[in-house]
Amino acid sequence: MIRRKRDLHIQEQLAHRIVRRTTIRGVILTVFGAVLWALSSACGQFLIQKKGFNPEWLSSTRILFAGLVLTLIGVIQNRSGIKELFKNKKDLLRLLIFGVAGYMLAQYSFLQAVEVSNAATATVLQYTAPIMIVAFVCVSTRRAPTLIEAVSIVLAVTGVFLLSTHGSFSNLSIDKMALIWGLLSAVGMVFFSLMPTKMIPKYGSILVTGLGMLTGGIVMLFIARPWNYADLEKFDLAGILAYTGFALGGAIIGYTLYTQGVADIGSAKASMIASIEPVTSAVFAAFLGTMFGPLDIVGMVCIVITIILLSMPPKKIKISFHHPKTTSVKEKKREK
């Protein structure tokens, strides 16, 4: 009996250590994934504003390159998945919308916003996507927003207002096109988040994301025609390093790390940790010479708080009913 208890205690300790290590690993991977996303944005800003690269060229080549790599990884992991996907016409349509209206629109609009503003502002505007998702869910399910959702909407609108106007109703403090492109990028993120939800459980996140990127990249090739903007002189050492960080760091390594982080600690915690991306983007943008005023910082903080609030899982309220104590027949006999 004593030996059995000792064995159970050892097993509990081992299980606790495994869970702890997995949690620590998940947190570290999620942080690195978010930092790589921010670094990728900063590299994009450097390539556009310092090296003179075209946003169309950058977005098309990045999406295509990342799509090829992730699709290859996804096929290796799940060979039968791609065959099943191509047999399902509804999922193929979802994949097309996911790749074009989702990833392609989000990436292209984001880089256009970076070109006329900076990586931090573009990232923060893109992070208004959760509010759009909340609004869509409320309208589609015909329900009112919860208290947290309502507060988040107010904070997001306040954040965008402060970023774009600095509190003035008469004029914009950022370029009008930066605001339009940034919000269009958020619309793309809405499609990117909602469209693959039914496909990922069937085929896996890496395969679906890779094929979505590949689809968006192929469509983007015909729209942007990146071969018209090829300029090998821009690919000096700084250009090569920046493009590597832009294409490889954020789209492939950052996404893979974040996906593993979600598997280790869950989507709620991972989303909250990933909200450091806008802050990290602001730090990287500052190194590139971007100046932020107090109202810019307040606006960014409002949107970051919005992300954290919407990432928090709803608390389950346990209701216990205390019934008056009833005595059994045996207890009554004992009392007598």
Summarize the structure in words.
The chain is 79% helix and 0% strand. The protein has 336 residues and is mainly α. It has one domain. 43% of the residues are buried.
Short description:
This protein is an all-alpha fold. It has helices at residues 2-50, 55-77, 79-87, 89-116, 119-126, 129-141, 147-165, 176-194, 200-203, 205-224, 237-265, 267-274, 276-287, 294-311, 329-335.
List keywords for this structure.
mainly alpha, disordered C terminus, 15 helices, 336 residues
Strand content: under 5%
The helical percent reads over 70%
Q: How many individual β-strands? A: 0
Shape: globular
State the end-to-end distance.
Answer: 39 Å
Q: How many helices? A: 15
Number of domains: 1
Sketch the topology as an H/E string, one letter per element.
HHHHHHHHHHHHHHH
Outline the fold blueprint.
Layout: H1 2-50, H2 55-77, H3 79-87, H4 89-116, H5 119-126, H6 129-141, H7 147-165, H8 176-194, H9 200-203, H10 205-224, H11 237-265, H12 267-274, H13 276-287, H14 294-311, H15 329-335
Helix pairs in contact: 1-11, 1-12, 1-13, 2-3, 2-4, 2-10, 2-11, 4-5, 4-8, 4-10, 5-8, 5-13, 6-8, 7-14, 11-12, 12-14
